């Protein structure tokens, strides 16, 4: 397969996301990390900061076949706009599967030409969630073990505290 998107809010991008990305790169020649902009959600980091964090992580990993962009419409509409017919979604738990499967089934009904591939996180990262990482950040804890190499979270948290 040629290209896929890996959509999400990535607030922030974690080592678990990086793990799924590396697995996806075994299946696809290139991956577009698509950071969703949802005006209904208030994230810890603004969209531009999320993109910068991801760019730092992919640069440190030397991944020249990964790009980052933002979008604000339905994921399947974005796929159609950019000519991609595969969505990568990472799974940590069975709860993730149940949630993601509902979305994948709805997407398949609306856009039968677009497929969703589920990639399980490695066991060592299955407990890491952006929600947990945000909570640690908000309480000024050390999140370095939860973030990919190259991400120095301190340069992004100056406006948070």
Describe the structure in brief:
The protein has five helices and five strands.
Task: Kindly describe this structure.
- With about 160 residues, the chain is of the alpha/beta class.
- It has one domain: 3-Layer(aba) Sandwich (Rossmann fold), CATH 3.40.50.620.
- It contains five helices and five strands, in the order E-H-E-H-E-H-E-H-E-H.
- It has helices spanning about 15-25, 45-60, 75-80, 95-110, 130-140; strands at about 5-10, 30-35, 65-70, 85-90, 115-120.
- The chain has a three-stranded parallel sheet with strand order 1-2-3, sandwiched between helices. Strands 4-5 form a two-stranded parallel ribbon.
- Helix 4 links the parallel strand 4 (about 85-90) and strand 5 (about 115-120).
């Amino acid at each position: 397969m040629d290209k896929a998107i890996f959509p999400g809010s990535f607030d922030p991008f974690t080592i678990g996301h990086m793990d799924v990305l590396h697995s996806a790169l075994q299946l696809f020649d290139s991956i577009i990390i698509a950071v969703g902009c949802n005006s209904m959600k208030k994230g810890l980091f603004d969209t531009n900061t999320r993109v910068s964090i991801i760019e730092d992580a992919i640069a440190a990993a030397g991944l020249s076949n990964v790009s980052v962009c933002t979008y604000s419409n339905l994921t399947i509409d974005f796929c159609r706009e950019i000519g991609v017919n595969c969505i990568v979604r990472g799974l940590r738990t069975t709860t993730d599967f149940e949630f993601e499967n509902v979305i994948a089934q709805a997407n398949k009904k609306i856009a039968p030409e677009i497929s969703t591939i589920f990639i399980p996180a490695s066991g060592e990262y299955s407990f890491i969630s952006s929600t947990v990482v945000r909570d640690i950040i908000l309480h000024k804890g050390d999140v370095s073990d939860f973030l990919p190499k190259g991400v120095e979270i301190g340069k992004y948290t100056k406006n948070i505290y």
